Amino acid sequence: MELLDKLAECIELGKTDKNFPHPPHLTGKDGARELTNQALEEGVHPGDILKKSLMVGMNRIGEKFAEGKAFIPNLLISAKAMYAAMEYLKPYFDTGEVQHKGKMVIGTVAGDMHDIGKNIVKMVLEGDGWKVIDLGTNVSAEKFLEAVDENKSKVVGLSALLTTTMMNMEAIIKTIKSHDKSVKIFVGGAPLSSEYADKIGSDGYFPDPHGFQKYLNNLTSAA
Amino acid sequence: MNTPTVQTVINNPRFEELEMKEQDILEAMGYAGLDAPGYIKPLVYKYIAEAAAKVEITCGYVLFSNHDVGVEKKCITCKNVNFDVDDVIGIHLRGATELAIFVATIGDEFDDWIGDLSEETDQLTVFIVDTIGSELAEAAGDWLEKTLAKNFSSAQKKISNRLSPGYCNWDVSDQHKLFSLLPENFCGIKLNKSAMMIPRKSISGIIGIGENVKRLDYQCNICDMENCYKPR
Hints:
- The complex is a heterodimer.
- By secondary structure, chain A is an alpha/beta fold.
- Chain A is built from ten helices and five strands, in the order H-H-H-H-E-H-E-H-E-H-H-E-H-E-H.
- Chain A has two domains: 3-95, Orthogonal Bundle (Methyltransferase, Methionine Synthase (B12-binding Domains), Chain A, domain 1); 103-222, Rossmann fold (3-Layer(aba) Sandwich), CATH 3.40.50.
- Chain A has helices at 3-13, 32-41, 46-66, 72-95, 116-127, 141-151, 163-166, 168-179, 194-199, 209-222; strands at residues 103-108, 131-134, 155-159, 184-188, 204-205.
- A five-stranded parallel β-sheet of chain A has the order 2-1-3-4-5, with helices on both faces.
- Chain B is α+β, with helices and mostly antiparallel strands.
- Chain B has one domain: 3-Layer(aba) Sandwich (NADH Oxidase), CATH 3.40.109.40.
- Chain B is 33% helix and 21% strand.
- Chain B has six helices and ten strands.
- Chain B has helices at residues 22-28, 40-51, 87-93, 108-120, 123-153, 175-180, and strands spanning 6-11, 58-65, 69-71, 75-78, 81-84, 98-105, 158-159, 190-191, 197-198, 202-210.
- In chain B, the strands form three sheets. In chain B, strands 1-2-6-10-7 form a five-stranded antiparallel β-sheet, covered by helices on one side.
- In chain B, strand 8 and strand 9 (197-198) form a beta hairpin.
- The longest helix of chain B is centred in the middle third of the chain and has 31 residues, at 123-153.
- The A-B interface holds A 14, 21-24, 71-74, 76-77, 79-80, 111-113, 116, 119-120, 123, 162-165, 190-191, 193 and B 29-31, 36-40, 122-124, 126-128, 130, 166, 171-173, 192-196, 200, 226-227.
């Protein structure tokens, strides 16, 4: 198996490094950490490692998740492996040798402290080459706006888990859009629906991170 | 002649009494009838064991009866508070002559534990511990239901399932009305403006009691909530 294919498999199945005990059939074999290092040492371009391994692996597990064939823990194990590989790629992002697909600001809206869903979206998008600015939980409209300005981000993700706090999304969307109409704002969270997302003026609702990731990729490739 | 009565009961069951099983956690994470990755199982066992030292389980209810209680198809009255509810709730509470407004919590140390883990470790660990906390809070609710059923069985009274704002099309903002029927800081639980309970691993709701109450399965077939844990 080619090195980059092996690495993609490690990301998909969540094999972080040689010592990591999962999955059983890869016990004792190199994981994402070792394979990424090896690829760089062999002169593989870091951009290729990102596109042909990390993105491929995260995409595969994301698809399984969307199809109900994998669950949140599987996604989180994959993300752990992806972050292990990303440590080696970070210097190349810093120098600009590898470019992010774009910048996205993400946060759980004011009044809401739930962050697991938001964190999963963040991981999936980072694994897909996005730079994600995570504002955490209980984020006000002003903080979102400040982050959009500071990072010159054109994509924002709002998360809420309660029907009471999802109502705060509308004000945040209005604040950002009145400042810059071109910013695309997406919403997610258990109580939301496409109808509600339309009603409050968002640019879309996605029930799973993989669907969101695919949409964003289409959006950026069309731009 | 019936006279209005209000009775308050608080219990502190032990961790072991909640009978939390590893399989419950694995199922809650999605692995119902499926084999979870071998790597996850030991983590679930480990953190359930650690959870025992992080919980302070408290559950209690305030019981309203007679003139204080009204049960109609789309409106439940408790003392001077009206809850506008969906048919689903009305069907469950049909025949109730008493209503228990209940809460159950595993305490705030568990929240602190999750907060610490969020800073110290990976998201998988945080997710597992968070799931354990949610399941423990529900298990405390199960314990309360069983205790209530036992207490009322001698009077030939039956109890409904527990029903909570946020489920069965009952608006979560009704939490504020529900908590207005409880003493302040009841069982150590506070409600914030967004109707979120603190400690976070807490549950609240209503249970109908009466000779003619029929304990039904959750009426998922007539409910249109897409994201509900009940039918799992």
